Amino acid sequence: MKKLYLLLLLPFFIFSCSDDSEEVNPNLSKLEVNLYTPRSITQEVVPQLTIKNDEVQATAFGRFNGTVPLGIEKLYISDSETKTEWVVLVDESVRPVFMYGINSATKQKLPYLYWIDHTSQSQYTLRFYEYDWVNRLGTLEYEVKVTDDKHEVIFDNATPSKGGRSAGKRTKSYPAPVISFETYGLKTSESSSKLAADESIDEIFDRKVGELMDLLKETKTKLIEAPCDVSEAVDSPNKSFVCKLSEQVNKITDKEIFEDVEKATEQEQSGSKFGFDGLKIKLDLDFFDDYDITDNIERHLNDVHNSGNANSNLEDWVSDMQELSDTENEALNDLSDSKGVIQIGLSWNTTADIDLHVVDPFGEEIYYSNPSSSSGGYLDLDDTDGHGPENVYWTKNIPDGQYKIYLVYFAPENGPATDFTVKIINGLGVRESIPGSLGFFDHNKVHIVTFTKSGNTLKF
Prior knowledge:
- The protein has seven helices and 25 strands.
- It is an alpha+beta fold and about 450 residues long.
- It folds into two domains: about 30-325, no CATH class; about 335-460, Sandwich (Jelly Rolls), CATH 2.60.120.
- A hairpin with a 2-residue loop joins strand 10 and strand 11 (about 150-155).
């Protein structure tokens, strides 16, 4: 196991482990691995570990318990070729959940949002949104179920419905709040990490390299390669971005490179001079007591930002990343009970076209022909192919008063009897679940329920 000794502000540089007389392979990709500890006690999310080469950088962000790094909370990826930076948000199990990009030159977030909804170890749902960061509204462009790396496109916003059950009407998504993204910062706490008592610097290094490598592998598979494959299949406008990212991330996540890093971190050594030439990399391992002095990352930032001045320093970068990766909706920040959201959801059990209609306290009706209201309500999807779900959301400035919910059996004529469930959710908990049945004879609006909102209370 690699021995690293803590010397104040002094980095250890670890060079080639091959015999001095052995010629170094010039084709090896040089990879740098940097471990940081904060110069002072902090509760903020700051860099913990970086793996990088001359073109691509991946940095794990998280908190520290004193000088001991806790679990990874966010992942930063950038490359100097496309001059794009990416933020990956993780859950408590350190699994990637959301990913979005940033234009390095303008520091503006790109209008793309990827969401992984984990179902099981072998299955997950991938959703891609065209995202409006100003109004915090996402339009679902495609939804894909992935099972054992096999992709099934459930919804493609650019493709007309195939069933033809609803003449002049096709399944279509609308700009609406992405509730799981809106409430991400409210639901998650710092990620877990397996901490051993009295961990040595050596053990901390091995643990953090393992955590970052595992997260990179899963991010590459689920949030980079899968979207690239799907985007090419459905000819999505984001395909050039995400597929290029796949090519770049491969440069530090190649299977043989990971094998090299694992072999290097397992090498027993004595003293401070150690190196490793693997199948694909020449590995440099650095340890810093103060991440402010890592000028090699500053050089990478200058390459990414196309700037040769000293303004792209690590302090500014950390500050920028903390701001750009803060996804919480300010309108929800003062709601300690997280009840600043109303969601009315409809699902059903056949391929019939069932429509959700909601009338707000001002009498405005939200449905497929009027998918948003002046009161801030949004319909996310008009599902003409069956099963749903269709949802109407309010996320801020939710008016008090009466909300009326109706359903319409739109098509097909003489279609099957259909069982449905309507759920009204206040905040993060189900408040009411209403089952029922419809047939084509319910082609006119059927009243399902009326509830009254008063503050954070719903009365049925």
